[in-house]
Amino acid sequence: MGARPPPDVPRRRGRPRRDQATAAILHAAGELLAEEGLLAMTLDAVAARAGTSRATIYRWWDSKETLALDTIEAQFAAHIERAIIDTGSLAGDLLEDIEARLRAVQAPGMMRLWAAMLGHAHADPAFGDAYRARFFTPVRESAHAAFARAIARGEIPAETDIELALDLLFGAVANRMLHANAPVDAQFARDVVRSVMQGLIAREPSGE
Predict the structure, then answer these.
(1) Among 3.30.420.10, 1.10.357.10, 3.40.50.1980, 2.60.40.10, what is the CATH number of 6-74?
(2) Distances in whole angstroms, Cα of residue 201 to Cα of each of 51, 125, 192
(3) CA atoms in the 13 A half-sphere facing the CB of 190
(4) Average pLDDT of span 24-33
């Protein structure tokens, strides 16, 4: 699936109206995704809520799936950098990134939107592949770079199981966000990062 987002189009006369229409469509899609989920959402409903035509939407997106992916990317882009920032320490890098993600999902409607995307990613294999390529894989790759920097600095052992560390880190955050069983706040982010870091730098006693 390939979106054709207007931001890639060169600037020309009439661009402000196009930007306004794009913003209205993405906003409407975000509301409907949070309210109904991707399966129930229709492009006709998006067009009606955005005050535009279905033809306008199809000019820029070839399906509601590509529109949904652009919608959630636009929502997260307002809060999260594409790559994990190098703060000079792995703990700082991870904490900066997790706190940004927590702020993003705590924006109005974002938790429902994210949950809807995850649900549809499991129900539709093709959408799941596209979702992971756009959101899951880049996050893991960026985190790998942060861990590589930490290994180069000697913060953590070279043999660190990075994939397992990432599962522990992001899994703890995702679990609490999805189940809403306890507060998801800055203190929680610090506790998760501290626990993971303690596990990474702990070494088994020699001879065991």
Answers:
(1) 1.10.357.10
(2) 55, 38, 15
(3) 3
(4) 90
CA distances from 102 to 4, 11, 96, 147 (A): 29, 34, 10, 21
- Can 6-74 and 81-201 be said to share one CATH topology? yes
Cα-Cα-Cα-Cα torsion 148, 149, 152, 155, nearest 10 degrees, comes to: -100
Given this model, what pLDDT does residue 38 score?
83
pTM score of the predicted model: 0.70
Q: Where are the domains of the chain?
A: 6-74, 81-201
Size of the chain in residues? 208
pLDDT tens for each residue of 97-155: 888 888 877 777 777 777 778 888 888 899 899 989 988 888 888 899 999 999 999 99
Residue in 45, 15, 13, 40 with CA at minimum distance from that of residue 28:
45
Return the structure tokens found at 161. Answer: 């199981």
- Within 8 A by CB and 6+ apart from 97, the residues are 80, 81, 84, 85, 142, 143, 146
Q: Above 90 in pLDDT, residue 161?
A: yes
Q: Taking 80 as the threshold, does the pLDDT of residue 173 lie above it?
A: yes
- The highest-level CATH class for domain 81-201 is mainly alpha
The CB density around residue 86, as the number of other CB atoms within 10 Å, is: 13
